[in-house]
From TrEMBL:
Coiled coil, from the record: none
Span of the signal peptide: 1-27
Keywords: Signal
Pfam family, one: Fasciclin
SMART domains per the UniProt record, alphabetical: FAS1
Domain FAS1, residue spans: 84-228
SUPFAM superfamilies in UniProt: FAS1 domain
Name of protein: Immunogenic protein MPT70
InterPro entries: Adhesion/Biosynth-related (IPR050904), FAS1_dom_sf (IPR036378), FAS1_domain (IPR000782)
Key word Secreted present: no
Protein source organism: Sphingomonas jeddahensis
């Protein structure tokens, strides 16, 4: 078991990542998540902001910001997610995304979440980070492991603003599987499990979308119940 004060080299982190296989068993069951997903609200929100109009092709950033400003976003951690904010600002405002906010600020991914997009972020909750091996989150924040941290955070970011309905459409078009290329360079695998959307990382661990379609001026956020980890070798 990792100690909080030990410095974990990225090559050793690969061993710790193997423990993430337990997340699939620890994660909530798809049937439970299906009951919690705000599907009717999400579908209503999805219908408005990302329709492909000529204006979007000419000025994607401006059109995205204008649509987000009028979007009806779900609350995250009991806090309103304002469409006039950036992804970084809204994540910082959510009380259940504090660990993610710390990690983003310490990594190269922080700039992407603050600048003009569009991007899509799969945002793990504090509870998701708590299920990592003991001390792993602190080790990622150690200065010696910043390259590994940046890769892990970038693995949660996909270029383009992708709504949950669009993920479902990609899954259908792919015969039941959609590969979402991340900024880290490796894809996430998206599948349907009932009404839930599952994301499988490079290590075979699954996470599920809990709160979809949080629209911001530079993209969209989907809150997930697990940490997505790329191969770190």
């Amino acid at each position: 078991m990792l100690k909080h004060r030990e410095i974990l080299h990225p090559s050793l982190l690969l061993t710790a990542v193997g423990v993430l296989g337990m997340l699939a068993a620890c994660a909530q069951q798809p049937s439970q998540l299906a009951e919690r997903l705000p599907a009717p609200q999400g579908e209503a929100v999805n219908a408005r902001p990302y329709a492909v109009q000529p204006e979007v092709r000419r000025q994607p950033a401006q059109a995205l910001a204008a649509a987000a400003a009028t979007a009806i976003n779900p609350y995250v951690g009991g806090t309103a997610m304002l469409g006039t904010r950036t992804i970084a600002d809204n994540c910082a405002a959510a009380p259940n995304l504090r660990v993610l906010t710390r990690m983003v600020a310490a990594s190269n991914a922080g700039r992407a979440l603050s600048e003009a997009g569009p991007i899509t972020v799969f945002a793990p909750t504090d509870a998701a980070f708590a299920r990592l091996p003991n001390g792993a989150a602190d080790q990622l924040l150690a200065s010696a492991n910043r390259p590994a941290l940046s890769k892990v955070m970038s693995y949660h970011v996909v270029q383009g603003a992708i709504t949950l309905n669009q993920v479902r459409a990609r899954i259908d078009a792919g015969g039941g599987i959609a590969r979402l290329p991340t900024v880290a360079g490796a894809p996430l695998t998206a599948t349907k499990e009932g009404a839930a959307i599952a994301l499988t990382d490079a290590n075979g661990s699954k996470s599920y979308v809990e709160t979809p379609d949080i629209q911001q001026v530079n993209g969209v956020v989907h809150v997930v119940n697990g940490v997505l980890v790329p191969q770190l070798g």
